[in-house]
Amino acid sequence: MTNFIHLETKYLEVYKNEYLSTAFQREKFEFDSIPTNCIFDKTLPGLGATYSEIEAKRNSIIIEPNIPVIDGKVNSHKNLLGVYEGCSGVKIKNYLLNHKIEHKKILCTPEGYLKVKRIAEKNGTNIYENYFLLFDECEKITQDVDYREQISLPINDFFFSK
């Protein structure tokens, strides 16, 4: 038997020279950012979807398809943690347990997500209850899965986490 998930379609008008965060505020979205449990389909790049999540007043794990995007955002915003090959488990643990950072923002590759998940579980952090998951540029999964087998691993967590 196959289970289907039905998502309600909502439209959000973004005016010329406006970022999504402004449109979210105008429409009174919770957290002034992307709603939970949705697939956010935007046609135009550069509207600030990832930026709105970095600024959202909640903990977030943002999965990015490649390292230069992560490095660019980590270098231009404070209190972000970039996780990909070479990021130590100790660094992730220290970030997760740092009480001075009110809203934690972890940017990681799909492969790095598994490391974050494992270390969070080991240290008593429930990412399903305490973190918003943004899978940025999700079209890259279908484009890159032939040579990056692990790129699709976070999908089950995205759709089926409790």
Characterization of this structure:
With 162 residues, the protein is α/β, with parallel strands linked by helices. The chain has helices at 20-26, 49-55, 67-76, 89-96, 110-122, 127-130, 139-144, 155-160; strands spanning 60-63, 80-83, 105-108, 132-135. The chain has a domain at 58-160: Rossmann fold, CATH 3.40.50.300. Strands 2-3-1-4 form a four-stranded parallel beta sheet, with helices on both faces. The two termini are 21 Å apart. The mean pLDDT is 84.
SSE blueprint:
Blueprint: H1 20-26, H2 49-55, E1 60-63, H3 67-76, E2 80-83, H4 89-96, E3 105-108, H5 110-122, H6 127-130, E4 132-135, H7 139-144, H8 155-160
Parallel strand pairs: 1-3, 1-4, 2-3
